[in-house]
TrEMBL record:
Keyword Transcription regulation: no
Keywords, ordered alphabetically: Repeat, TPR repeat
Stated name of the protein: Tetratricopeptide repeat protein
TPR repeat start-end pairs: 95-128, 129-162, 163-196, 231-264, 265-298, 299-332
Keyword Repeat: yes
Pfam family for this entry, one: TPR_19
Organism from which the protein derives: Caldinitratiruptor microaerophilus
Parts of the chain that traverse the membrane: none
Length: 395
């Protein structure tokens, strides 16, 4: 049933897109067969028919463009780009062909070529918001966020009611570090289109970043309702719950995400951290071992793994894990600080003190490192120095 529903949705998208193109009379019967197969969710069979049409179909730009759009919705972007290039070559005055060519190139990660296609379209139709949006997306993907914002501003100016443009603009603002402005843009997107799941997810993530965790959670729950099978959305719901101090619910969300994407190192890591908070270090250790297998050099995973070992009193193993992590990232403040804590717990106060000094150099504002230095000095019999550091920690 889900495949049929997805097929019908994709079929309608192809029909709507094709209806905006220049008319194309005399479509071959195989075209209708390809659309019926798509509607029934038989994507591989539809792709076979589309490839036959690419060879034997009518040599007209209107048909090549329709075939390109079909290939794009069949997740065949290279073949889509080939057909759309053909359409643009046969009819160089049609801006829509350039737009769809840009979309196909975006799907392939060919940002510069996509930008060129959208730019060519804008020369033909400078008022088309889709072309401004497309070029903005290409620039953003290419890492040129400031330029992208100019084009995305033009997209929303040309069509203030286009929710997708407001969503993309929000992503651009977030990339530029303007999170509150990004949140306003995402709010505009979901106001215009309450069923735009990615915009709800982006709004939730951004609100969490600016400290509005309760509303962030509500937005992410809405995104989840719109995309119940998306493991990334489920992961973000879990992250919001963890931020709200609800580790049991967060762990459940992470487990549901892992059922859909079992090898996500980030989700495994976050589940392991929740299990530690819930007082389940044994299970946390198993989960974090899986996270390390998925992402061996990730300092955050190594840190959580070491903490799980420490909770079980396995300090030498934890220390070895931290040192392996520091080989990959010698300046990771969390690993440096936890190495100091671990050495302190092992009774090696001289070494622990040296590591707390390193941790302070990396995180001067973190007072816990001052407390650690003071405690080490006290254990080493250097009482006057210890008092000085305790006073500095309390200041």
């Amino acid at each position: 049933m889900q495949r049929l529903r997805r097929g019908i949705f994709t079929y309608l998208k192809v029909r709507r897109a094709a209806a905006q193109l220049p008319p194309c009379g005399g479509l071959p019967p195989a075209w209708g067969r390809a659309l019926r197969l798509l509607m029934w969710g038989k994507t591989p069979e539809a792709a076979v028919v589309a490839r036959d049409l690419a060879v034997a179909g009518p040599p007209r730009p209107e048909f090549a463009a329709r075939l390109g759009i079909l290939f794009l919705h069949l997740e065949c972007p290279a073949e889509a780009a080939e057909q759309l290039r053909r359409a643009a070559r046969l009819d160089p005055e049609c801006a829509l062909y350039r737009y769809w060519l840009g979309e196909a190139l975006l799907r392939q990660g060919r940002w510069d070529e996509a930008e060129a296609a959208f730019t060519a379209g804008l020369r033909l139709a400078p008022e088309d918001p889709r072309l401004w949006l497309g070029k903005g997306r290409a620039l953003l993907e290419a890492g040129r966020a400031q330029e992208a914002l100019v084009h995305l501003d033009a997209a929303v100016a040309a069509d203030p009611d286009r929710a997708a443009a407001w969503n993309e603009r929000g992503l651009c603002l977030a990339r530029l570090g303007l999170d509150r402005d990004a949140a306003r843009s995402f709010r505009r997107a979901v106001t215009l289109d309450p069923d735009l799941g990615p915009a709800w997810a982006n709004l939730g993530i951004t609100l969490e970043k600016i400290g509005e965790a309760e509303e962030a959670h509500r937005c992410l729950v809405r995104a989840q309702a719109l995309a119940p099978g998306d493991p990334v959305v489920l992961h973000n719901v879990g992250h919001a719950l963890a931020t709200l101090g609800r580790p049991a619910e967060a762990a459940e969300a992470f487990r549901r995400a892992l059922a859909l994407e079992p090898h996500s190192a980030e989700t495994l890591h976050n589940l392991g951290v929740c299990l530690l908070e819930l007082g389940q270090p044994g299970e946390a250790l198993e989960v974090l071992e899986r996270a390390l297998a998925a992402s061996p050099g990730d300092p955050a995973v190594v840190l959580a793994y070491g903490r799980a070992l420490e909770v079980q009193g396995r300090y030498p193993e934890a220390l070895a894990a931290y040192r392996r992590g520091l080989e990959a990232d010698p300046h990771h403040a969390g690993l440096v600080g936890q190495t100091a804590v671990c050495l302190f717990r092992m009774g090696d106060y001289r070494q622990a003190h040296a590591w707390f000094v390193r941790a302070r150099a990396l995180e001067p504002a973190n007072r816990s490192h001052l407390w650690g230095q003071a405690a080490c000095l006290e254990r080493m019999g250097r009482a006057e120095e210890a008092v000085e550091f305790y006073n500095r920690a309390l200041a």
